[in-house]
Design brief:
The protein has 263 residues and is an alpha/beta fold. The chain contains eight helices and eleven strands. The chain has a five-stranded parallel sheet, with helices on both faces. Strands 3, 4, 5 and 6 form a four-stranded antiparallel sheet that branches. Strands 1-2 form a two-stranded antiparallel sheet. β7, α5 and β8 form a beta-alpha-beta unit. The radius of gyration is 26 Å and the shape is elongated.
Length: 263
């Protein structure tokens, strides 16, 4: 951008701090948290604002050349959302329509935390916590509540333990009168969800859908490849035999996958 667009819409006291004798102190400006806002383009196009870092800023002739990187851990903010709290940052609607570099006396991250925190969609059948709270060491096992799967559960627990994780199954807990609520809460807190498709249990398939929707790391296991639904065949899954040797192999394969995910 042209050098004349640096410090547009910026209070004179701030300009004086970052510009001495007409020379912009780019090194000092690079230390500031930065919000990069795409210029509004008109109907049908939704520009997005991103938080990032200025890596380099230098004067080339009468232009300022910027190198920057976005912070991928912070989701982009549609301009239509950013405009709702822009006044808190000292940004007017006019500024969304012009490329420039302004410096504001405002707390960017406090404002974003208060206004741009994504709200979770609220299901009607069960509850989700307002704020996502994943326990990084928690693995959950989704399988039929049948004694024939107890030894398989032990194999999953052994794999989790070997990876420095802990594994729980919904019938291990009783935190809510509704079983589905305990199941969903466990999935929501889990880093990894292991789902046994053996026997095509409808409850397990329902839980797979919840885990996928919540964006959890899902590992599918089965005693029969035919029990993997057609819509999930494109996903990698672990086949195992339900005997002592097969369960040891299952533990080893799950351990390798859990270590890969954990790292």
């Amino acid at each position: 951008m042209g050098i004349t667009r640096v410090f547009e819409y910026t209070e004179s006291s701030i300009v004086e701090r970052f510009q001495k004798a007409g020379v912009v102190d780019f090194d000092e400006l690079k230390s500031l948290p930065t919000l990069f806002v795409q210029e509004n383009q008109g109907p049908g196009i939704e520009p997005v604002a991103r938080v990032g870092t200025l890596l380099e800023a230098k004067l080339v002739g009468r232009d300022v050349v910027l190198e920057y990187a976005f912070d991928d851990s912070i989701a982009g903010i549609p301009n239509s959302v950013a405009q709702r709290f822009a006044a808190e940052l000292g940004i007017s609607n006019t500024q969304f329509a012009r490329t420039h570099w302004a410096v504001k006396n405002a707390d960017l991250f406090r404002t974003l935390l208060r206004n741009a925190q994504p709200r979770r969609h609220k299901p009607k059948v069960f509850r989700l916590a307002d704020i996502e709270n994943i326990e990084p060491l928690l693995v959950s096992a989704m399988m039929p509540f049948q004694s024939s799967f107890d030894a398989v559960y032990v194999a999953i627990q052994d794999a989790a333990k070997g990876a420095g994780l802990r594994c729980r199954r919904a019938d291990d807990i009783w935190e809510d009168p509704l079983v589905i609520q305990d199941v969903v809460s466990l999935i929501d807190r889990s880093k990894i969800v292991v789902c046994d498709c053996t026997g095509r249990n409808p409850n397990v398939f329902y839980e797979i859908g919840i885990a996928h929707t919540l964006g959890r790391e899902v590992i599918l296991i089965t005693q029969s490849e035919q029990d993997i639904p057609f819509d999930l065949r494109h996903l990698r899954f672990v086949s195992y035999l339900n005997n002592a040797e097969g369960r040891r192999d299952l533990t080893n394969r799950l351990l390798a996958r859990a270590l890969d995910i954990a790292n």
